[in-house]
Design goal:
Layout: H1 5-12, E1 16-20, H2 24-38, E2 42-45, E3 56-62, H3 69-79, E4 84-89, H4 94-102, E5 107-110, H5 115-126, H6 134-147, H7 159-169, H8 174-181, H9 185-199, H10 204-209
Parallel strand pairs: 1-2, 1-3, 3-4, 4-5
């Protein structure tokens, strides 16, 4: 069956990035960071123009300059179902951030975050994981576990996996972890691969910041 034109466009260009903001300087800054981090095309999106650009894999939404932000999130979920949404704002209320994620965003980042953190958040959300303050992630995790019947939904880690996680948290490379634990580097990679599958993430950065890893 032939797919609608919008669906075909999204599949053909899954890594294009859209930015919704009314601040020209913020647009330039985010374009520079995202283009550098992702190496992809970064395009401004206009609410007034109907958010018509298609084929987007990621959309950044500036909450401070986007009126009726929740309506914009809802519209983007309808018109860009393949896109992952990352909201940037000045608010730090866990309740508000949870509401943003519940509305369909995959992450929330403060506008005052350093460039390295912006790059990390963009990469993690683009890869399908959630980015939010640790307190918010912990609350979301606790709620999910409660809905699933308690700790049954939480993966268990072996003693060696906990050792690997602790060294990952310390910023150690695979080679440094292998040396510290007196194991082969290939074994370290195997441990990290199993940990990512258990936690449900697709890269080591997301593994390190995931709230599940707080249970060490």
């Amino acid at each position: 069956m032939e797919q609608p034109p919008n669906a075909r466009t999204q599949q053909e260009n899954p890594k294009r990035v859209g930015i919704v903001t009314g601040d020209p300087l913020r647009l330039v800054g985010l374009q520079a960071i995202c283009a550098d981090a992702l190496g992809t095309e970064v395009l401004p999106l206009s609410v007034a123009d109907g958010l018509k650009e298609q084929g987007l894999g990621l959309v950044l939404i500036d909450a401070e300059t986007t009126p009726q932000m929740f309506e914009v999130i809802s519209a983007l979920r309808r018109t860009h179902p393949a896109a992952r949404l990352l909201v940037l704002g000045n608010g730090t209320s866990p309740d508000v951030i949870e509401r943003i994620i519940a509305a369909g965003a995959r992450g929330y980042l403060t506008l005052g975050a350093p460039e390295a953190e912006v790059r990390m958040a963009v990469e993690i959300v683009r890869d399908g994981s959630v980015w939010a303050p640790r307190k918010v992630l912990a609350r979301l995790l606790d709620r999910r576990e409660s809905e699933q019947g308690g700790a049954a939904g939480r993966p268990s880690f072996t003693a060696r996996e906990r050792d690997v996680l602790q060294l990952l948290h310390a910023g150690r490379s695979n080679r440094e972890i292998a040396t510290a634990l007196a194991i082969d580097e290939s074994t370290v990679k195997a441990h990290i691969g199993r940990l990512m599958r258990k936690v449900g993430v697709t890269n080591r950065t997301a593994l390190t910041v995931h709230p599940l890893t707080r249970f060490l």
